[in-house]
Design a protein that fits this description.
single chain, alpha/beta, Spore Coat Polysaccharide Biosynthesis Protein SpsA, Chain A, 12 helices, 9 strands, 41% helix
Length: 257
């Protein structure tokens, strides 16, 4: 079984259309697990009919993805960002890996909007093949045994995907799937193409030089504070109506933590 793990936070505008495209996994006997990091909108109630399980955890993709992996029943884990669309061949491609002990990612293309986006995507794919490093935008997948061997995602606010790749590379070379995922170019559009490229490379270089991810996060997210240790709660359809507001969701988290 493939367990698709989806970390979300305040994605009410996009979550239903995103989850629709993942329904072939459920139709083929696989599972979808949505892990919310504390949404204050209607993300949970909108998402619930489209997934097999809904979890609430502490905020932060690493914490959310680890929580989803802990609850997953599959022998293959696929970590899927809500702004990335898988190719139609994804179910067949991942199923063909069977029970192999492996990990990998897809090639990527960016949603249209600037002449540089195909260039950026092409360079991302080349860089990933050369370095063996995958990013979350490339839909990272990993067999359960390898994920457990490296103790999952490191609990850090940035670069958790890069750090996971570094650790997995020590166990096996990545499977690089040529079929492309389509990921949103909104961060390039919102912050500017060249500014975003420079920012990403500056952060990546700083991380490789040993600057802690927490330090980088503090400069990227003003007011950042990493909150770990929050217990995970599963949300069932019968009590979804009780957690549609941010105030009530905070109460749920406090009760658990």
């Amino acid at each position: 079984m493939i367990s698709v793990i989806i970390p979300v936070l305040n994605e009410a505008d996009n979550v239903e259309s995103f989850l629709r495209h993942l329904q072939p996994f459920r139709e083929s006997g696989h599972e979808l697990i949505l892990v919310d990091g504390g949404s204050t909108d209607s993300t949970l109630s909108l998402a619930a009919p489209w997934v097999d399980r809904v979890l609430v955890s502490g905020a932060g993709r690493a914490q959310q993805m680890n929580a989803g992996a802990a609850a997953a029943e599959g022998n293959m884990l696929l970590f899927q960002h809500v702004d990335t669309i898988l190719p139609d061949s994804a179910v067949c491609t991942l199923s063909s890996l069977g029970a192999r002990s492996c990990w990998g990612r897809f090639d990527v293309c960016l949603s249209p909007g600037h002449w540089m986006f195909p260039v950026i995507a092409g360079l991302m794919n080349i860089r990933s093949r050369v370095t063996g490093i995958a990013t979350g935008d490339q839909s990272i997948f990993v067999s359960r045994d390898l994920f457990d061997q490296v103790n999952g995602f490191p609990l850090q606010p940035l670069m958790e995907d890069i750090e996971l790749s570094v650790r997995l590379k020590q166990k096996a070379s990545p499977v690089c799937i040529k079929d492309k995922v389509l990921t949103s170019s909104r961060r390039w559009q919102n912050k500017g193409v060249w500014r975003t490229i420079l920012l990403m490379w500056r952060f990546r270089l700083a991380y490789l030089l040993g600057i802690p991810a927490e330090t980088l996060a503090a400069s990227y997210y003003p007011g950042y504070e990493l909150k770990s240790g929050t217990r995970v709660r599963e949300v069932f359809p019968e009590n979804l109506s009780d957690i549609n507001t941010g105030d009530t969701l905070c109460k749920v988290q406090k009760e658990d933590g």
